[in-house]
Structures are given as C-alpha cells and as structure tokens.
From TrEMBL, chains A, B:
It catalyses: (R)-5-diphosphomevalonate + ATP = isopentenyl diphosphate + ADP + phosphate + CO2. InterPro entries: GHMP_kinase_C_sf, Mev_decarb, Mev_diP_decarb, MVD-like_N, Mvd1_C, Ribosomal_Su5_D2-typ_SF, Ribsml_uS5_D2-typ_fold_subgr. The keyword Hydrolase does not apply. SUPFAM superfamilies: GHMP Kinase, C-terminal domain, Ribosomal protein S5 domain 2-like. One of its GO terms (molecular function) is diphosphomevalonate decarboxylase activity. The lineage of its organism: Eukaryota, Metazoa, Ecdysozoa, Nematoda, Chromadorea. This is Diphosphomevalonate decarboxylase. It comes from the Eukaryota. One of its GO terms (cellular component) is cytosol.
Length: 372, 372
C-alpha cells in the first residue's frame, strides 16, 4: 500500500475470474445479493482484473475506469453500493476506536481496472472486477475476510468466490442480514493440475441478463425449488469429496450434470431462457466423444454460449486435437498454447461443417488473487 | 365389418394422431408400456392413419404394410405383441362362452395402413398407426374400450390417447398389471374451435429415440421425479379446467410450460438430450411476439424439432401472417390453407435470416377416430 500524501490510500491487486462447478442461479434477496443456493467454484488464473483503488480523504466524485473507459456510475448503481458499504465499515471501525471522533469524514474513490481479456468477449468480467475492488479496499481499510467478502458480493454476487484460491464454497447462509452468507476456501489443498480451456463463441442473439434471468426462473420455474433443496446440497458435497480425493471422473460428472441442470431450469422458466447455442451443443458433443472410453473432460456453461472445459493438464493437448477436428480456432491462440505447453498441433483435415471459436484460452485453475 | 368367407374378418378404420398438452415422458414398465405420469392430449383431425386389418382363421404369417411398404416384423416386435394380445383376448372370450371348445384356434393378421402425411416428415405416425390397428381389432373381436386401449398402448404408449375425440386423459394407473392404466375421454364437450398449425423443420442431427430418451431421463435426471410427483398432477387439472371453461389463455400457458419442462428434463439427463433446434427456437420467439399483447397461441414440441402451435380458429390467419415474416413456407401448403380458410396472405417482405419449414399443416383438433 502506498500513501500519496496524508489523505490518499492506494492499493493495486490482481484478481482472477471464477467458474462455478455447481451453479449459482436465483437470489433470495436482490438488494444484499443473497443466493437461493450454495455454489462452489475455481478461479481461472489467467483471466484477471488488475485494479487500483485510490481512497481519497476529501469530498469528490467517485470514478471507475475499466480498460481505459469511464463507467457511467448513475446507470451502474452497484459501484456506489460498494463504496457506501466501504465508508460505513470505515466509520464503524473509527467509532469503535474513538467514540468521540467526528463521524462525517468524507472520502471518495477512484478505481482503475484493466482486464487481460476483452470484456466484450462475453466472459463474466464483473466478478473479477468487483472482487478486485473489494480486495483493494480490504487492504486499505484493513478489513477482515468476512467484511471483504460482503463487499465483493454486494457488487456482483459471484465476485465473492474470486477472493480465494483453491476450491471456494459460497455458502448461502440463513440470516436475513446476510452475515452468514460468505465464500470460504475449502480445506482441500489446491489441485494445480486442473486446467480449463475456454472457448468464446460469438452470438448475435439478444441475451437475457443474469439478474433478469435469475428473477424469471425464481418466479416461474416449478423445478428450481427441487434443485435448490435437494440436488444442490448433495452436489456441493460430491464436488468437495471428488476434489479432495483427486477423483477427476466423479468431479467431471457432477460439473457437467450441474451445468445441464442450470440450463434446464432456465428452459423451465416462463418464457423459457436459452443460453446455449449451436456452437455450445457441438462442443458438448465433442466432449462426449472425447469421454467415450473414460471421462477426461467436463464442460460447463454460464449464462451464455461460451464453453469452459475442465481437463487435467496432461490431457490438454489431446483435447485440443479433438477440438480441431470440428472447431476453427484462431491461429494466434493456438500458437500461444503450443508455445506454452511445448507441443505442436497438426493442421486438421477439413471438417464438414466446422464451427468458429473467436477466442481460445488455456489456463490453470485455482490460483487465487495476488497483490502487487 | 365385412366377412370375406367364413374365416376372414376385415375392418377398416381411420384414426388421427394426437398431441400431448401435458407430456408423457418416462415408463415405469417397459414391457407393458406403463407411464410414470398421466398425460392429456387432443387429436389432430387431419393427420390420420387409414388402416385395414384382416384377421384370417388359418395359420399364416402376419403382415404389416405401411404406405405400400412391407414392415419387417422381426425388427418391430411391437406388432407381434399386439397380435398375441388380440389372440389372447379372443381365446379368453371363447373360453368364457364355451369351456370345452378347442383352445388352439389359429389365426393370422394382415394390416394395410396408409397415412395421409409423409411418415418420414418426423410426425409421430406410430401412435395413429397402432391406435388404428387396435380399433380395427376392437371391431373384429367386439372388445370393450379398456381392452382396445390396452391393445393400442402395448403397441405404442401414446397410441391409447388416439382412441377418442375430445380432450383425452391417459391415466398412469397404479396396478402392476396395467389394468387401471387407460386413456379416457374427459367429460368436457369437444372444443371445435381449437386448431393446430404444424410446422415440420428438417433436421440432420442423429435423434435420440423416445424409448431410449425416456429411459435415460428416468435413470439420470434428478428433476424428473419432482415433475412427475408434484408438477404433472396439477397441470392435468389445470388443462381440464381451462378446457372445460374455454379459457384459452390458461390452457395455452400450461401447454407451453409443460412442453418446456419436458425439454428441460431431457436437458437434465446424462448425457443431455436435445430435441429443439434453431428453427424450433425461432418459432418459440415468434409465438412470444404474437402473444405480446394477449396469449393467443401455444407452442408444443414432442421428441423432435417440429412445432405444433395451438390457436383458436379465428386467429389462424393472423398467426400465419406472423410466421410469414420469418419462416419460408411451401407455397402449395400456403395455398391450401388460403383455400380452406378463404383468406389470402400477402407476399411477405424479405426477412433477414428466414428459416425453412418443409411442411405446414393446419387442422382442427379433437375429432377422434372414424370407422368406414
């Protein structure tokens, strides 16, 4: 942390996005962003938001800049919610320290965030972004993990899962004030051999945003309640157990089943919500083909058509060779994978009806945030 | 019924296919074809199988001919199951009449069936075909409705719903021998204003057959049980009530929700089953657009991409005009609709990315079978 003068605190952090293995879908409190069910996730080490937060002890306008562009805060209320909560926590601590001190210390925040992947690619960048803001403010105000977690969550629900490395369990909690709704690092040691292969598929369809989608599913799906009460708790335990015992096949089966069930409850909504497109389905078929002898890969899809395929490190080249049979991958992306993994891929024979992937990213998982 | 000589009984009937409004998906007994849940349906008057059954009192080979082609009975065991059951019923009756009569009367069957729509179009023709065989045998052997229903069902489960006009409720029953598993005509008077618009969309994908699909869903979906126990019973009542009170909007809402839920439990299966394609989804979007002000149409999809849209008779022209904005319809099909409804459709302005429908059929619903 550097202090540019008495009234300015500045911290820079780098925080990865995360992928849920058991999905979060549905809020029980829209304001506090309290989920209807637990979820569990891994971070994607290579997709990060590097974020600098300056807290300036003078009245002023809060500003947020992402990849060089100013964010219009009046239409993105979540930033203000986070800043307000940060100031509340600071005031609270000061009150604890000195009951007589002036309560009206005024501050404003400047946030500068850079993601190392295109925000427009449709990869959920807000989770990494809000987690980074929360982590930087945690450093500035010396908050505990629970406070920082809340800060991330009220910015963007699943952001709270990006605050740790390893397997992270976001517990829905029971309390109305959200005080027991926190993401925690599970006791399992990180499994560094887990890699993900992210495929970005373009899509011109008008997307149902995840907040709107969650609301619609909660209000109209007759299957969601059963998922939440009976299916998710068991799957959380299955993921923990498979991860702890390094049982890739069991882990992969739960991941795929839960991705499909998340999309099933979307389809069970009125009107039905559809995030998977033809490319997503082709990818599902390729994974099934790859898994024919033995389950070695698991697909998972969030609220969009882009695929995340989880494999063990030594299966990455074989899986990419399977991809190349049916999917056209940008050559620069392929080249960087070849360099990194020290393998080479043959030019594939022509596919009958290849599909186009606009970006391929290969990354280890579970690394967690870092401070600079 | 005509008798060509003493040993031959011949009956010809015409039976329509049916569309489930609350879907049948999952068997509790594969041999007797007993379903896991009730379903409810309407017949499609214009899509019929005209079938002649000859029961010949001499040993011989059973034969089945559909649209001029001989069916290979060794790979279509269901026909033999139906013939065996018919002979069992006949023997049973003869025994009741005369305990001393020879039990070994031997017969064989000749079936000639013609559908008035292409079997290859992907419209479920087996329901109409087996219902027609069952109805013809009912006439020949003077069976009661329950016996005839069983005969249709063991041929092709949903065939038992084609045995009546009006709103037909196939009750799953509780007994192991299937004796209380019957389709019955509900008490509501037929609603002749209900029309359906069937759109056939081509699809080159390898389809998961419905028997295999049902098995997979029953064995792997964690949502199916909830659907069966809690959702379907309520929806059956909702359909009955809406149909009885001629409440089209309520009826349409249940129909669409149940079609979507059926496809949701397919997606929740391992590996996931997908029947809807891009064309199906475009049709869903068109129906949503058409329903924006008021719910006037309901889509429903069986185990394939073809759509069935249920509308009231006076809304047929308006709905077809909506279709024409985005869907290319064969001109001869459009012309026959124009002639029948005495309307004319303008040549639509060019759509950006029209989809192709290979067959359009407009038909009243609920008419039921007929004898000739």
């Amino acid at each position: 942390m550097s202090h540019n003068g008495a009234g300015v605190s500045e911290v820079t952090v780098r925080v990865p996005m995360n992928i849920a293995l058991v999905k979060y879908w549905g809020k029980r409190d829209e304001q506090l962003i309290l989920p209807l069910n637990d979820s569990i996730s891994l971070t994607v080490d290579k997709l990060t938001a590097e974020t600098t937060v300056r807290m300036i002890q003078v009245v002023g306008e809060n500003t947020v800049e992402i990849n060089g562009r100013r964010v219009e805060l009046s239409s993105n209320k979540r930033y203000q919610t986070v800043f307000d909560e940060a100031l509340r926590l600071q005031r609270k601590r000061k009150e604890d320290l000195n009951k007589n001190e002036n309560k009206c210390i005024t501050h404003h925040f400047e946030v500068i965030s850079k993601t190392n992947f295109p925000v427009a690619a449709g990869l959920a960048s807000s989770a990494a972004g809000f987690a980074a803001i929360a982590r930087a403010i945690q450093k500035i105000l010396n908050l505990n993990d629970t406070q920082a977690n809340r800060l991330a969550r009220i910015g963007s629900g699943s952001a709270c899962r990006s605050m740790f490395g390893g397997l992270v369990h976001w517990k829905k909690g029971e309390k109305e004030d959200g005080s027991d709704c926190v993401a925690v690092k599970t006791e399992s040691e990180n499994w560094p051999d887990l890699y993900c292969i992210i495929l970005v598929f373009n899509d011109e369809r008008k997307k149902v945003g995840s907040s709107e989608g969650m609301r619609r599913t909660r209000e109209t799906s007759t299957l969601l309640k059963h998922r939440i009460e009976y299916v998710v708790p068991e799957r959380i335990e299955q993921v923990k157990k498979a991860y702890e015992s390094r049982n890739f096949q069991d882990l992969a089966r739960v991941i795929m089943a839960d991705s499909n069930q998340f999309h099933a409850v979307c389809l069970d909504s009125i009107p039905p919500i559809r995030y998977l497109n033809e490319s997503s389905w082709r990818l599902i078929e390729l994974v099934e083909k790859f898994n024919q002898q033995e389950v070695k890969a698991a697909y998972t899809f969030d609220a969009g058509p882009n695929a995340c395929v989880i494999v063990q490190k030594y299966d990455v080249p074989a899986f990419i060779r399977t991809l190349l049979q049916d999917i056209i991958i940008p050559s620069e992306d392929l080249k960087s994978v070849e360099e990194e993994l020290k393998v080479s891929f043959d030019c594939p024979s022509e596919s009958n009806s290849p599909i186009l992937c606009s970006k391929l990213i290969v990354s280890p998982m579970g690394g967690g945030p870092a401070d600079s």
